[in-house]
Amino acid sequence: MLNIIKANLSRLFKNKLFIAGCILAVVITIYFIDQAEIILDMHFRSIEKAHQLISIGVIMFISIFAPVFQSVEYTNGVIRNKVAMGYKQSEIYAAHLITMIAASLTIILCWIVGGLVAGVPVSSWLITYSVRLFFSMIAYSSFMTFIGMRFRKVATSASLGIVAFQGAFTATIIIFMFVSRTWQTLLGKILVIVGNGSALGRWFANSQLSDPEINTSMIVSIIISLVMAVIYYMIGSFRINKRDLQ
């Protein structure tokens, strides 16, 4: 599987869409923070708050890039060739997940660089939020790998990635709206965990758009992310070696 990972990473860092995404992540972050006083409401104008809000771009990019990057291998017959060489589809799937996690980490690093260039100080907040974002993106990468490896047509995968992003965003708003009404109840506490179970939910919970109390602790955030990553992986890779590659 190591050879597959190496090949995937080589292809990743040569991919023009990914290179463009990394450059844009830096440029847009710098611009957004610089223009925060014009773009944002006065409650969000600090550079830390602007930096956190623009991190939604990390999630948006992976929503499109991951399914496209992976489904192209089906279209080009690359996965079929790998299977013919003796690799199991489960190994290929795991290698793609690791590649998407690497892609997410790279985009996050570009977001951090953009923030630092724009004047965001290195602080406990930046470190804490970056760690939360990375682990939430592990889960999100797992979900997007599931889409890219299950739906083999590029257009279908890209469309589903966009729909998944929009659906997760809408669901996050609805869940946390109910949380605000049921905060002190068992249902409210369950909804907090559910809401924090997605990358968009984690983004929303850490922003000034929500009550700070709905943001789970670092340990809980990491546990939720890893549990969701495992669930998505198990669903996506279920009986994968039995699947027809035609």
SSE map:
Layout: H1 2-12, H2 16-34, H3 36-39, H4 47-54, H5 56-75, H6 78-84, H7 89-118, H8 124-150, H9 154-181, H10 186-195, H11 199-206, H12 218-236
Total helix count?
A: 12
Structural class: mainly alpha
Rounded Rg? 19 Å
User: What is the average per-residue confidence, as pLDDT, rounded to a whole number?
Assistant: 85
- The low-pLDDT segments are none
Strand content: under 5%
Please state the overall shape, judged from the principal axes of the Cα atoms.
globular
How would you describe the oligomerization state of the chains in this entry?
single chain
Q: What composes the largest sheet?
A: none
Element order, helices and strands?
Answer: HHHHHHHHHHHH
> How much helicity do the residues have?
over 70%
The end-to-end distance, rounded to whole angstroms, is 22 Å
Please report the total strand number as a whole number.
0
What does it look like?
It is a single chain. With 246 residues, the protein is an all-alpha fold. It is built from twelve helices and no strands. The protein has helices at residues 2-12, 16-34, 36-39, 47-54, 56-75, 78-84, 89-118, 124-150, 154-181, 186-195, 199-206, 218-236. Helix 2 packs antiparallel against helix 5 (56-75). The longest helix is centred in the middle third of the chain and has 30 residues, at 89-118. The chain is globular and about 55 Å long. The model has no long low-confidence stretch (mean pLDDT 85).
